Amino acid sequence: MKDKILVLGSNGQIGTELVTALRAGYGSNNVIACDIRRPDYEIKNAGPFEFVNVLDKDILKAIFEKYQPTQVYLLAALLSATGEQNPKLAWDLNMNGLLNVLDLALAYKTAKVYWPSSIAVFGPNSPKEQTPQYCTMDPNTIYGISKLAGERWCEYYHQKYGLDVRSIRYPGLISWKAAPGGGTTDYAVHIFHEALKKGSYASFLSAETELPMMYMDDAIRGTIELMDAPAEQLSIRSSYNFAGVSFTPEVLASEIRKHIPDFKLSYAEHDPRQQIADSWPKSIDDSYAQKEWGWKPEFDLAKMTTDMLTNLKK
Ligand code: SER
Question: Molecular function (GO) terms listed (predicted)?
Answer without folding.
Answer: L-threonine 3-dehydrogenase activity
